[in-house]
Amino acid sequence: MRRTPSDASAQAVGGAAAARTSIGAVWLSLALTLVIQVLASLVVFTPPVLAPAAQADIGVAASSVGIVTSVVYAAAAFAALLSGDLIGRHGPIRVSQYSLALCGAGIALIAVGHPVFILAGALVIGLGYGPVTPASSAILADRAPARLRALIFSLKQTGVPIGGALAGALVPGLIIVLGWQGAAFVIGAASLVVLLAVQPWRGEVDRGSRAPDQSATHGLVGPLALALRHTRLREMALASFTYSGMQMCLGTFLVVFLHDRAGLSVPAAGAALSTAMLAGVVGRIFWGVLADNWIAPRRLLGVLGICMSMCAVLVAFVDVSWPLPAVLVLCAAYGATAVGWNGVYLSEVARVVPPDQAAAATGGSLAMTYSGVVALPLLFWAILATTGRYPAAFGAVAALTAWRAAFFMRRI
């Protein structure tokens, strides 16, 4: 059974706690949270891949998909703040099932093809996506052994880049066979399949999860106040504002940029996105091992922030003269850093609070994280719309990210 000095007083004793931290419970919980994260992320990353094929039918430029992304994460920030209360009432797996249902419904609304339905679909997807990570943190915080905490959270968070990689690899093929609207409906149906697939384990996991501390999870204000009044949580939340914005600028604009400015076909640009996301999978695992064994998580987060900023600047100068292998190598480095940081971050959030506050702390921190996902793609889009220059847009986001990364490099 896991014990640390910071949360020993909050640990339950006896058989129930031992069951929660058994090896079988750890890996079952990890498997369930991972597959849910994969499907929710697949839905979120699908609209940017659909955009180049859909723009003629919709009558809106593909680069405007940044607005869709911002709506998704604005709704996700709101839903994340409410997730502690929802998880306390219904259990983390049941809340995850609700999330998958909303994600599936949202991508189906986008498939209608009218701008109003697209924005409504983005809103519904965001409401579904917001509680996914707090629910998984509520499950894993009470089960992950302290010596493997960063690795287990990083493994779970590989679901985000895996979902992105699947979007880049599968959606272009589905577009060729079914059209962009048919591809969207298939992704929505996949969410419902996973919703049903996790049902046999819902009772076991939800009954075994520690009830959240209601004083920390109440309403919209409680989780955000928890994140902002705690010094370490506040520092990480502010950094995650820029890191997450950088990550979503990669996921939102990479395919469009490589297709429009670097002359790659949609399948080739999708392959570049898949490469970045798969590198993010490897990065999340590798950085988790480093954080558990060799490098302090705070310092590692600073190094990753500086590296992702450098990669963003280099990506902005890719053009038709670049050979595809060089583009893929750069995208891999970009993905390993800009997509790979989340597991270390979330493990630190869960580490510095008692397990019964993990869902609330994660929800409050993610409100800042998702706010960055809203703000920075909008900033990117606004700079691009004003100047027409991708280097200016990538450079602005890189400067903000490097600024916050520098805070992690200070001695404390």
Task: Describe the structure in your own words.
The chain has 412 residues and is an all-alpha fold. It has a single domain, classed as Up-down Bundle (Growth Hormone, Chain: A). It is built from 18 helices and no strands. It is globular and about 50 Å long. Mean pLDDT is 80; it is low at 1-21 and 213-217.
Q: Would you spell out the secondary-structure blueprint of this structure?
A:
Blueprint: H1 15-20, H2 23-58, H3 65-90, H4 92-111, H5 115-129, H6 132-140, H7 149-157, H8 159-197, H9 202-208, H10 214-217, H11 221-229, H12 231-260, H13 266-293, H14 297-315, H15 324-338, H16 342-351, H17 358-387, H18 390-408
Helix pairs in contact: 2-3, 2-4, 2-5, 2-6, 2-7, 2-8, 2-12, 3-4, 3-5, 3-6, 3-17, 4-5, 4-6, 4-8, 6-17, 7-13, 7-16, 8-13, 11-12, 11-17, 12-13, 12-17, 12-18, 13-15, 14-15, 14-18, 16-17, 17-18
Care to give the gist of this entry?
With 412 residues, this protein is an all-alpha fold.
